[in-house]
C-alpha cells in the first residue's frame, strides 16, 4: 500500500479503509504514506499543500523488508491514521514522522535491525498493546523523539526485553504511561527531557 505526494500537488487523500490483507515477499515497505516523496522546502499552507487524513488499516499481516513509513510535512502533518490488529515480520520496523492523531492498537512488529517503532515530531499519539516477540539487545522496542501528548498503555514486554521505551527530544511533552506491565529499568529518558513531562499511572 503506497500513497505518495509532494508539495505543490495539493489535493486531499482521505477516508480510506484497508482490511484483511496478507502481504508476502515485499522488498521495500509494506505500507507507505509519504507526503515528501521529493525533497522541498516548507511553505505557507495553500492550495499547493497536499493532505493525507482519516486512513484506517486493520487485520493486516506483512512479511517485508520495512514494516511501515509515515511521513508528513512540517506545515501539514499526516493525520488521523490508525492501525488495528496488525503483525509485521520485517528487517526494519515502523517509522512515523510529522504526524498527529495516530493510533496503534494491538500491533506486533518483529524486526532484525533497530527499534520496532520510531516516532518523531508527532502530536497526539496513542499506543495500545504494542509488542515485539523478538526484542533486540541494545535496541528499544519503542523510540519517541519530540513527541507531544502521548498515551502508552497495556504494554506487556517479553521476558528477554532489556529496553522497551526510549524517550528523547527537548520538545517532548505530556507522555502518559498507563496500565503497563514493565518496570522503570526498561525506560531510557534523554537528559534533555523534562522528567515532569512523563507521567505514570
Q: Brief overview, please?
A:
This protein is mainly β.
Task: Tell me what you see in this structure.
The chain has a single domain, classed as Pectate Lyase C-like (3 Solenoid). The chain is mainly beta and 201 residues long. It has strands at residues 2-4, 12-34, 51-71, 78-110, 117-131, 142-153, 165-168, 173-178, 187-189, 198-200. The radius of gyration is 16 Å and the shape is globular. The N and C termini lie far apart (37 Å). The mean pLDDT is 96. Strands 1, 2, 3, 4, 5, 6, 7, 8, 9 and 10 form a 10-stranded parallel beta sheet that branches. Helix content is 0%, strand content 61%.
List the helices and strands and how they pair.
Elements: E1 2-4, E2 12-34, E3 51-71, E4 78-110, E5 117-131, E6 142-153, E7 165-168, E8 173-178, E9 187-189, E10 198-200
Parallel strand pairs: 1-2, 2-3, 3-4, 4-5, 5-6, 6-7, 6-8, 7-9, 8-10
Q: What structural keywords apply?
A:
ten-stranded parallel beta sheet; 0% helix; single chain; mainly beta; 201 residues; 10 strands; Pectate Lyase C-like
Number of helix segments?
Answer: 0
Q: Structural class per helix/strand content?
A: mainly beta
Q: Strand share of the residues?
A: over 45%
| Relative helix content | under 10%
Give the number of DSSP strands: 10
CATH third-tier fold name: Pectate Lyase C-like
Query: Distance N terminus to C terminus?
Result: 37 Å
Whole-number mean pLDDT: 96
From the alpha carbons, calculate the radius of gyration and give it in angstroms.
Answer: 16 Å
CATH architecture: 3 Solenoid
- Give the biggest beta sheet: 10 strands, parallel
> Any idea what the shape is?
globular
Instruction: Extract low-pLDDT stretches.
Output: none
The CATH class designation is Mainly Beta
Total domains: 1
Amino acid at each position: 500500500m503506497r500513497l505518495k505526494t509532494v508539495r505543490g500537488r495539493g489535493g486531499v487523500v482521505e477516508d480510506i479503509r484497508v482490511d484483511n490483507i496478507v502481504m508476502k515477499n515485499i522488498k521495500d515497505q509494506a505500507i507507505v504514506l509519504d507526503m515528501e516523496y521529493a525533497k522541498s522546502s516548507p511553505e505557507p499552507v495553500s492550495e499547493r499543500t497536499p493532505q493525507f487524513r482519516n486512513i484506517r488499516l486493520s487485520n493486516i499481516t506483512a512479511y517485508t523488508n520495512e514494516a511501515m513509513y509515515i511521513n508528513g510535512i512540517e506545515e501539514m502533518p499526516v493525520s488521523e491514521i490508525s492501525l488495528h490488529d496488525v503483525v509485521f515480520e520485517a528487517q526494519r520496523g515502523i517509522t512515523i514522522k510529522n504526524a498527529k492523531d495516530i493510533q496503534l492498537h494491538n500491533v506486533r512488529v518483529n524486526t532484525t535491525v533497530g527499534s520496532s517503532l520510531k516516532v518523531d515530531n508527532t502530536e497526539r499519539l496513542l499506543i495500545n498493546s504494542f509488542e515485539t516477540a523478538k526484542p533486540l539487545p541494545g535496541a528499544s522496542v519503542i523510540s519517541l523523539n519530540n513527541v507531544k501528548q502521548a498515551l502508552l498503555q497495556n504494554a506487556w514486554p517479553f521476558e528477554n526485553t532489556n529496553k522497551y521505551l526510549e524517550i528523547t527530544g527537548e520538545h517532548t511533552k505530556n507522555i502518559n504511561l498507563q496500565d503497563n506491565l514493565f518496570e522503570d529499568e526498561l525506560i531510557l529518558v534523554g537528559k534533555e527531557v523534562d522528567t515532569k513531562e512523563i507521567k505514570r499511572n
